[in-house]
């Protein structure tokens, strides 16, 4: 592994040196062009304009290449580390001190989306093509006999699904009005001066406005502000920003849905201990929640059409439906044994009967 990193660094050093030499050459060529000008008429000669255009074009192209090379360096270093270190390492408690990441840690790196995406990409490959590594997922720890590997991986995948669902729900569902505070059983006067004659007149007591009136007034003001065009435009822009923020990890989310469905399907033949069956209802519940929320998202998206958001939304609907259909085909005959809530069981039955 050290040889791979050393060779990669040598290649990057050569690329940077070539780019710097090209920049030096372009600067030298431009200075010679400037030095060749003796009179004002030399500025308008065809050869000088042609050479200046070529030098400027090369300078801009090389500067763009320099920026792309810097991006390649930063991204490739992370990619090499993840691809060569996380790949073929699925154990959570790694004994090898040279290994910076395990698969579980890669899935949990929410602050580094590239590592998280590569972790779910690796998990998707495992769920479809790598039976040897799936065997490690379906294994129990020794000593203890606990499914630590499966628990850590499934929890991170379900967590990503539910977090995205909660963010989308906050956008699609209107905010719930605060319930009015319940009035006290007795007024302050009754509590302190119970069974005592009040010496003050009733019209001197200042009556308080009920809490319901405050809620009605605030809702009316909010609805009136929404009718004003600039305010409504700003609110729509804010919702679109929130939607983009919620869907920014849609690629990792898609891989998480596919991975959970494929692992659950493979567990029918490969899970000797039945560890996946315990969390099957949690996976189905998370996917059904996301499916319902994405269907409600149509109203928000159609208010202001955005091609990229629409494409991402259609892609996620396709991913979630495919995952649910895969689970419905494999576990349809056992739907009564999954201990699903009544609503989820009814919706999942529609997938079993191919009604969605």
From TrEMBL:
Transmembrane segments: 20-40, 52-73
Gene Ontology annotations for the cellular component aspect, listed alphabetically: nuclear membrane; nuclear pore transmembrane ring
Location in or out of the cell: Nucleus membrane; Nucleus, Nuclear pore complex
Protein name: Uncharacterized protein
One Gene Ontology molecular-function label: protein-macromolecule adaptor activity
Entry-linked InterPro entries: Nucleoporin_prot_Ndc1/Nup
One of the GO BP terms on file: mRNA transport
Family under the similarity heading: Belongs to the NDC1 family.
Highest taxon of the lineage: Eukaryota
Membrane topology value: Multi-pass membrane protein
Pfam families documented for this protein: Ndc1_Nup
Main subcellular location: nucleus
Organism: Parthenolecanium corni
Lineage: Eukaryota, Metazoa, Ecdysozoa, Arthropoda, Hexapoda
Entry keyword set: Membrane, mRNA transport, Nuclear pore complex, Nucleus, Protein transport, Translocation, Transmembrane, Transmembrane helix, Transport
């Amino acid at each position: 592994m050290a040889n791979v990193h050393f060779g990669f660094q040598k290649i990057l050093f050569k690329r940077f040196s070539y780019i710097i030499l090209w920049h030096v050459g372009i600067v030298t060529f431009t200075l010679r062009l400037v030095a060749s000008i003796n009179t004002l008429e030399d500025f308008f000669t065809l050869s000088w304009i042609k050479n200046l255009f070529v030098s400027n074009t090369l300078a801009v192209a090389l500067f763009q290449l320099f920026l792309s090379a810097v991006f390649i360096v930063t991204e490739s270093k992370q990619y090499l580390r993840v691809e060569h270190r996380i790949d073929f390492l699925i154990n959570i408690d790694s004994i090898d001190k040279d290994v910076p990441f395990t698969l579980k840690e890669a899935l949990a790196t929410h602050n580094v989306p590239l590592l998280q995406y590569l972790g779910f990409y690796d998990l998707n490959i495992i769920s479809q093509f790598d039976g040897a590594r799936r065997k490690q997922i379906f294994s129990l720890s020794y000593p203890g006999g606990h499914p630590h590997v499966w628990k850590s991986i499934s929890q991170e995948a379900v967590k990503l699904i539910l977090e995205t669902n909660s963010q989308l729900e906050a956008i699609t569902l209107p905010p719930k009005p605060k319930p009015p505070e319940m009035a006290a059983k007795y007024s302050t006067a009754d509590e302190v001066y119970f069974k005592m004659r009040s010496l003050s007149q009733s019209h001197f007591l200042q009556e308080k406005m009920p809490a319901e009136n405050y809620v009605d007034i605030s809702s009316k003001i909010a609805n009136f502000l929404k009718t004003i065009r600039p305010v409504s435009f700003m609110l729509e822009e804010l919702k679109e920003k929130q939607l983009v923020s919620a869907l920014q990890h849609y690629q990792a989310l898609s891989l998480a849905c596919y991975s959970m469905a494929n692992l659950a399907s493979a567990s029918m033949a490969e899970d000797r201990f039945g560890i996946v069956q315990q969390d099957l209802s949690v996976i189905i519940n998370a996917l059904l929640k996301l499916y319902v929320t994405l269907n409600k998202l149509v109203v928000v998206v159609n208010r202001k059409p955005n091609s990229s958001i629409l494409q991402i939304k259609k892609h996620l609907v396709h991913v979630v439906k495919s995952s649910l259909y895969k689970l419905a085909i494999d576990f349809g005959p056992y739907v009564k044994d999954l201990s699903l809530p009544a609503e989820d069981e009814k919706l999942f039955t529609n997938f079993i009967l191919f009604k969605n």
